[in-house]
Amino acid sequence: MANYQSNRRSTQEKHRARRAAILDAATDVMRREGVAACSVRRIAKAAGVSPSVIHYYFADAQEIVDFGYASITDRYFARLEAVRGTFSDPAADFWHLIAAYTEPWNAHPRMTLLWSEYYTMSGNNHRTSGIVESYQRTIDLFANFLAPIEEGRYVGRAQAVWRHLTGTIDSRLAIPIGLDEIFAELALVIGIPAPAADTVRCSVRACGCKG
């Protein structure tokens, strides 16, 4: 019985390790070549396995892409959460978050293309749960940073922040916009005075939140 349980644990560990290795390979393909390149055959080649092995561990390429995209966004959100508490003033913390949220998209235009490809693939496959989860996670993040400001007065405007920044980021490749303009527009949308963008930009670089 003990040997059976030990063998079972060993099999489960190998299963998890193989699955994780496939996801790592898929995430690497996604970063370098884009979501559109993430076919089962391409992922199998990157992982050094046959397509049949991919199908053993995952239903299809969309499932792998969902997990891979979630892994990328997990790291991104961890950096954003690290902004909390940088300033004693919660309003300053909020603007610091906005800078940390938008600057990587400007520094790495590939992020916008990656999101657009993921959005398109998920929509075409009628499997949008990953998109909805990503949107809601962003709204919740903004709400959490708005909550301490004037006893939650602005928390209900988190969705407006998300809508404005989503449009700004999606159009940034065609219509570039600076952080100072983003701050000015967002201040009008939510009613919280914005600091000078340069002061926040410097603090973002200092804390290593960019990129």
From TrEMBL:
Q: What are the GO MF terms of this UniProt record?
A: DNA-binding transcription factor activity; transcription cis-regulatory region binding
InterPro entries, alphabetically?
Answer: Homeodomain-like_sf (IPR009057), HTH-type_TetR-like_transc_reg (IPR050109), HTH_TetR (IPR001647)
The answer to whether the entry has keyword Translocase is no
Output the Pfam families linked to this UniProt entry.
Answer: TetR_N
Give residue ranges for domain HTH tetR-type.
16-76
Regions recorded as binding DNA: 39-58
Record's keyword terms, sorted: DNA-binding, Transcription, Transcription regulation
Top-level taxon of the source organism: Bacteria
- This one is known as TetR/AcrR family transcriptional regulator
